[in-house]
Design brief:
Porin, single chain, about 35% strand
Length: about 270
Amino acid sequence: MTDVPRLATSIPSRLNVTVPQVDPLMLRLVPLPETCRLGSVRASALSFLIDAVAGVTVDSDPDHWTFTSDMLVRMNPVRAPDLVDGTAAVLRRGKRSATTEARLVDPHGSLVAFGSLGFAHVPRRPTDPEKITFDAIGAAEAWGRITPIDTPLPEAAGIEVIDGASGIVRVEITEDLRNPAGAMQGAMVALVAEVAAEEMISARWGRPALVCDLDIRYLAQSRVGPVRTRSEWLGDDDDAWVRVELVDESNGQLLTHVLARAREPTT
């Protein structure tokens, strides 16, 4: 599976995700204080659940990587439930690409978040890392033994706030942020954009903001780094969208384009 990390030390592996059901596949996130903000689950934490359950559903060819090309996340700003279950459906499957959707629900079946994703199938080169097929039963056993993160998610990922009011943050691409193909894992990319947006929005609001909407376009793989963001407001209203771009400092390459928006959390 291209975007499900294998290292037990990786940050995505330590988000407290399990596999309660194999056929059809269901992934479960048990929220932690470290994966929440303002009492709600972070959109980036939910994006891992969305990306993983949808990606596993379409990633079955050992000779091709299946990279997330775009991901839309819509999260309800509700209090974090005891658990969040994620399932996915394939909307379109082609030789070079696929489109899926994912639904995340609480124990009562109420929608917590929705995701829509596009995937690109890319031939694996002889020099690429070995690709291992996702084993749901094996993952269920392995993930159950992993120690969850014990520091806030942005801190665990090593994100440094350079200029919060301008939406500028920075992160080194460490092994614990990479996917099996050697690039920064998709939910970690979402986390960097989320932090940049929440810092910028919080500065305008004068109070902490909760990012609930993410529209992500993965333009290039983040392999070298460090990665730095640049951000701008797309409007003058407090509920306007923020555009966040992730750039590789080593060569100036634009890696990811993100639109983010915040809403008031439900108390």
